Amino acid sequence: MQVHTKETPILHDVSIAPDVLDYIAKRECDFRVCTSCGGPILLPTKVKPPKKSDFLLKAGNHAIYVSIHQARYLHAIRRDMIPFFEDSDLGEQEDNEF
């Protein structure tokens, strides 16, 4: 799959939080920033495969593909972009992240 691999002004100043880099390294896979009804979301490429129009951002030994629709608004990739599930019976957040 061909993606934009050159440094672009769009992604030049995007920072990746250290805890996100740790999260990616622990899961040993690539991720994609895409659009959800709640805003930008970070998903494994197994769940949301990259598109030809995505931009590529290095994250340690892995890649983060950034949707062309999110790229112009993205300034940082933060932990709150990673989805999680809540246990409705307990009302507590579980560690069931993707």
Observed structural traits:
four-stranded mixed beta sheet; 98 residues; 2 helices; alpha/beta; globular; two-stranded parallel sheet; Hypothetical Protein Aq_1857, Chain: A
Q: Which secondary structure elements does this structure contain, and how are they paired or packed?
A:
Blueprint: E1 15-16, H1 18-27, E2 31-36, E3 39-44, E4 55-59, E5 62-66, H2 68-71, E6 76-77, E7 86-87, E8 92-93
Give the helix level as a range of percent. 10-25%
From the alpha-carbon coordinates, what is the Rg to the nearest angstrom?
A: 14 Å
What number is the mean pLDDT?
A: 82
CATH-level-4 superfamily name of the domain at 15-80: HesB-like domain
* Unreliable stretches covering 5 or more consecutive residues: 86-93
Textual characterization of the structure:
This protein is α/β, with parallel strands linked by helices and 98 residues long. It has a domain at 15-80: Sandwich (Hypothetical Protein Aq_1857, Chain: A), CATH 2.60.300. Helix content is 14%, strand content 31%. The chain has two helices and eight strands; from the N terminus they run βαββββαβββ. It has helices at 18-27, 68-71; strands spanning 15-16, 31-36, 39-44, 55-59, 62-66, 76-77, 86-87, 92-93. A four-stranded mixed β-sheet has the order 3-2-5-4. Strands 1-6 form a two-stranded parallel ribbon. It is globular.
